[in-house]
Amino acid sequence: MPLPGGNPRAWLVQAVQPSEDADAIQQLASSAFDLDTVALVASAAWPQGQPDAAPVSPGEGAPSPTIRLTQLTPGRLGVEVASERGGMLVFAENWLPGWAVEDIQCPPETPTCEAGTWPAGGLPYFKPVRANLALVGAPIPPGTVQFSLVYRPASIPLGLLLSAVTLLLLAVAGLFSLRKWRNNPRPSQP
Hints:
The chain has 2 helices and 10 strands; from the N terminus they run ββαββββββββα. It is an alpha+beta fold. The strands form 3 sheets. Strands 1-6-9-8 form a 4-stranded antiparallel beta sheet, with no helix packed on it.
C-alpha cells in the first residue's frame, strides 16, 4: 500500500513524549499514533523532573509552519523554519551520536532564543535528540530561525589521529631500516 501524501525530509510536531525503546516500538507500530503531531524521545534524553508531556493540538487558525531545507550536502543540512509556536523539528535523517546544530540565526525579537527551553518538553532549543527511535529531532523556538544540522561524529577525528600516528610510526620504522641497511653492506661475493 503506498504511503498517503508527501513524505517530507523534515516536519514540525507540537508535542513530545518520553518513551523507552520497547514502548516506542509498540506506539509507532500502532495505526492510532499520529507522527504528524507527536514525537517520541528516548527517556534518557528527557530532563529529570520534567513531567511526561501530553499531546497538544495545534492552535485553532494557526498557520502551518514553513520549513525550507536551504542546503543539502553530505553531513550538513541547512534549515529555515517559520512557525508561530515552535516545536520539535523531526528530520528524516538516521540518528547517530554526532549530530549538532550550528550557525543559529534567531529572529530579532528573540536574539537569545538558542539559550531557552521548549515549554512542551523542557528540552533545550537546538539540541539534537533521538526522536521516534531512529530519527533526529531538535526543539526550535517560535519565529523564523535558520541553522545548520551537521553530522560530525567523534570517531572521525579520532580515526584521522590514529591513522596519522600509524603513518608516522611506519615512516620512522622505514627510516631506521634504511639506515641499518646502508650501515651494514653485504659482503661481496667472488
